[in-house]
């Protein structure tokens, strides 16, 4: 025992065996106090308002309101709450939607119990935690990719961010995918795409893709 009060945790998952088993596992750990469980996103919002947990361990795929939307609702009312997503999904869109919703942790089901407990205690203290594999992917996605000299020479009027957006457009990504990849809003991406089309004098997105690929982008 460290003398610190235990971290108050709400466990949210629509699979009863996993939910109750995981809650029992956490409840056996001195550093954690399970204050409630929920089987749906709507129930998670209700239980979070009732119990005011320090951390919510949140599944993503649930009937009705999913874990992403539940996270938004919970943090809108209590922004100090830490949310750790614990899910099977490794999809880039799900990862970045969770981050944009305000989650401060993202782990895959199958993580060792010690890793989950570390994530809970870290997030309760204001930190951010991701599994090792996911952290590497997030870093890769958030790091601008260097442009070749030919690409830079072909479009000298573009900013570094506009080059990056054009590269992803040339790779065939939609505005929504680009927004998730660059951690931007879709409105911001639309503005960048509009600026790029104007600067390179492309009539439309298709022409921009052709010219960008000719310059070596989109690979």
From TrEMBL:
The keyword Transcription applies. CDD domains: LuxR_C_like, REC_NarL-like. GO terms for biological process: phosphorelay signal transduction system; regulation of DNA-templated transcription. GO terms for molecular function: DNA binding. InterPro entries: CheY-like_superfamily, NreC/VraR/RcsB-like_REC, Sig_transdc_resp-reg_C-effctor, Sig_transdc_resp-reg_receiver, Tscrpt_reg_LuxR_C, WalR-like. It comes from Microbispora cellulosiformans. The modification 4-aspartylphosphate is found at residue 59. Keywords: DNA-binding, Phosphoprotein, Transcription, Transcription regulation. It holds the Pfam family GerE. This is Response regulator transcription factor. Residues 151-216 form the HTH luxR-type domain.
């Amino acid at each position: 025992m460290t003398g610190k009060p235990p971290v108050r945790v709400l466990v949210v998952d629509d699979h009863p065996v996993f939910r109750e088993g995981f809650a029992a596992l956490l409840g056996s750990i001195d550093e954690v106090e399970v204050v409630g469980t929920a089987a749906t996103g709507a129930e998670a919002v209700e239980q979070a308002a009732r119990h005011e947990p320090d951390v919510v361990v949140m599944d993503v795929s649930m009937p009705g309101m999913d874990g992403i939307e539940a996270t938004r609702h919970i943090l809108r009312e209590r922004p100090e709450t830490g949310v750790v997503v614990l899910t099977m999904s490794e999809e880039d869109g799900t990862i970045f939607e969770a981050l944009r919703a305000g989650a401060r942790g993202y782990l895959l089901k199958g993580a060792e119990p010690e890793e989950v407990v570390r994530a809970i205690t870290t997030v309760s203290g204001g930190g951010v935690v991701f599994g090792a594999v996911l952290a590497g992917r997030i870093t890769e996605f958030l790091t601008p990719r260097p442009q070749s000299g030919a690409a830079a020479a072909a479009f000298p009027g573009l900013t570094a961010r506009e080059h990056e957006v054009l590269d992803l457009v040339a790779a065939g990504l939609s505005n929504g995918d680009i927004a998730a990849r660059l951690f931007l809003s879709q409105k911001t991406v639309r503005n960048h795409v509009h600026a790029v089309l104007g600067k390179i004098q492309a009539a439309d997105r298709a022409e921009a893709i052709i010219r960008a690929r000719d310059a070596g982008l989109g690979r």
